[in-house]
Amino acid sequence: MKLRISIAAAAVAAVTGALAPAGAAFAQAKEQFFPVLSYRTGAYAPNGVPFANGYVDYLKLINARDGGINGVKATWEECETGYATDRGVECYERLKGKGPTGATVVHTLSTGITFALTDKSFTDKIPIITAGYGRADSVDGQVFKWNFPLGGTYWGAADMLVQHIGKKEGGLDKLKGKKIALVYHDSPYGKEPIALLQERAKMHGYDLSLLPVTHPGVEQKATWLQIRQNRPDYVFLWGWGVMNSTAIKEAVAVGYPRDKMYGVWWAGAEPDVRPAGDGAKGYNALTFMAPAGIGKVHQDVIKFVHDKGQGTGPKNEVGEVLYNRGLVAAMMSVEGVKRAQTKYGKKPLKGEEVQWGLENLALDQKALAAIGFAGFADPISTSCVDHEGGSSARIHTWDGSKWVVGPDRYTADQQIIKPMIKASAAKYAQEKKIAVRDCAKELASSK
Amino acid sequence: MFYRENGQFKSSYREDQQILGIRQDRWFIFGLIAFAFLVVPFVASDYMFRAILIPFLIVSLAAIGLNLLVGYCGQISLGHAAFMAIGAYAAYNLVVRFPQLNFLLVLVLAGLIAAGVGILFGLPSLQIKGLYLGVATLAAQFFIDWVFARVKWFTNYSPSGSVSTAPIELFGYKFDSPVERYVLVLAVVIVFALMAKNLVRGHIGRSWMAMRDMDVAAEVIGIRPMYAKLSAFAVSAFYAGVAGALWGFVHLGSWEPAAFSINFSLNLLFMIIIGGMGSILGSFIGAAFIVLLPITLNQVLPPLGALVGMNFGTAMASHLEFMIFGALIIFFLIVEPLGIARLWAIGKEKLRLWPFPH
């Protein structure tokens, strides 16, 4: 209850600040409009709120510290989707035409909304960033011109988790005969990793059992009784919102060891483990880009935004896992615009122009350090064929009060994933009758 | 004063039996249809089409389908979104497996497949009534949800269980832009609404209503319950199936089984209860109420709040939206239990006498 009140308070405080600049959007011309599809209500709010706070805080920081993106002021408007696909589409339609050049780039923050908007992207020409979620096959920029699953996909995530437990067991060959259970949100989001886990199961001979949990995921008793019966060696958790904390609590109830549980990066933040109290100790999850913590960019956010009374959420949540992910997501949008500005000039850009920027991102460690993200984001380097730009992550473990990041860094095995992406993307192109781009030709003609 | 039928004499049975007996009504409806076809496509924005008009029209069609079953035949169904899902997935599979099929034909076939399943799940209605039947149709909802989530063949082995549709083509013409899609949906909905209206005025509709009002009496006067009930289920599921196919292909473009969840079923039921049971017009009004009101509230509330000096964010607007929406539902149910369509009818009666009530 207390959590809920604080969330509600945070939300109210948050958006009162956020709406003010949006209202004045039409007055000036030198503005870049960012639609913010967020969910601050419903079963996914515990996770949606910190992400949205981080995203909006970064845009505020860009305006307050740098005076905009090279002089172009960032504006935004939030729209509540409640994680529902139909409302998400409605929000997108509502926001896509705002600002002098229309929506710059959209973060859907829901796999269902991603699927729906991907269809529209081909006519609307607005890039969709799905940092660490969305369709795995959208890595293939030749088919999915407008999708950018920057920094990783669920296939990559599943691959890294298998690599990690293989390492723990002393080699991937030792996985033979082991039992792995995937407890997943019964939606496109939760189903995405299955294809890869099955592929890997064929290679290593582990036994994969699939345990779907229906939306919103507060009822998992039957699932965990099955786990108690089967005693899998490892449990992968592919949940979101209240489903994650419920799963951990159920694991405690049936006595399944938490250190054998591995969450995807959307099942590894503070709101997921805190409700389970001490029971969550030892639970593991993947990190995505930024672990929890305070870096240079956070200090700036506190100095330029929160200390001025402009903070979107509570100040003590700055630096939490999902907050940081919101920051990183906003950073990707802004860097995409910056990159595009090098080609099209320092003026408000259209979605179509930002697409070029996102496709030619080259953020190495040095560049990341320069914008304050040293240690809080991984290098991204995209191209026409590769819209992911690199995929690596570490495992972090909840020690009862904070996330402790493990030493090993895993990189998704492209040898396994690439052919799957190619096949899946080709099937999509065929079903939707999309003309596949010829990247080599485009590159040659732009020179 | 303006709305009265003085001087409009009917000289043939044909005239006596037409749907809109009063000239002013006829003008109004023809005017409305002309407006929807000739004016709206040129003035409405993309947002209006994609987020409001298209979903409203498709959901209206589904509500008409449910109204035929619940409002006219008195058989309750809590699983109507499942029949929409059947239509959507049937259309998807038809298009994937027989890409040369005409989209209109696909629509009709999808409707027919849904009708078949509708008959199957209508069978319990021959034995049980009322709430018990409601529970039996609930089984349809869960079973069909389960089938589409688990049986991979239906989703063409898509890794995430989500399907995407091909662009709509009719006679070599691509329906790409929101305007074209709107016109397509509008045409389909008008044709089907007209069919429904005629169906309920005719022999079949009368047998449905007889079943609804008193099934024993209906049987005594020679109406076969099996034929009446199952035909209602079939026609109703057909409408739902066509609406489902449109929802998937025209509105969503790609969807997962959750798009046709129990919530959708309940929403459809609310629509006909609020709009008016046993009224085609009520289906439209109810759909408008359920589809448009939340979105309108969501957009109107923040500026309204700002007017009175209250500045609240998206979360608060969303909470308020739920509260006001719920309150309005209760308000309308208390003020007019027969639905908003009844208010409309009363209004027309009053208008006929106005300004001299006696």
Keywords for this entry:
heterodimer, A: 447 residues, alpha/beta, Rossmann fold, 2 domains, 7-stranded mixed β-sheet, 3-stranded parallel β-sheet, 46% helix, 15% strand, disordered N terminus, B: 358 residues, mainly alpha, ABC transporter involved in vitamin B12 uptake, BtuC, two-stranded antiparallel sheet, 14 helices, 4 strands, 72% helix, 3% strand
How many structural domains can be distinguished in the coordinates of chain B?
1
Mean pLDDT reading of chain B: 90
The CA-CA distance between the termini of chain B, in Å, is 13 Å
Biggest sheet strand order of chain A reads 7-6-8-9-10-13-14
What is the arithmetic mean of pLDDT of chain A? 88
Decide which structural class fits the backbone of chain A. alpha/beta
How many beta-strand segments of chain A? 14
Which descriptor suits the 3D outline of chain B?
globular
Write down the CATH topology of the largest domain in chain A. Answer: Rossmann fold
How does CATH name the architecture of chain B?
A: Orthogonal Bundle
The greatest interface between two protein chains, and residues involved on each side, is:
A-B, 51 and 40 residues
Q: How are the strands of the largest sheet of chain B arranged?
A: 1-4
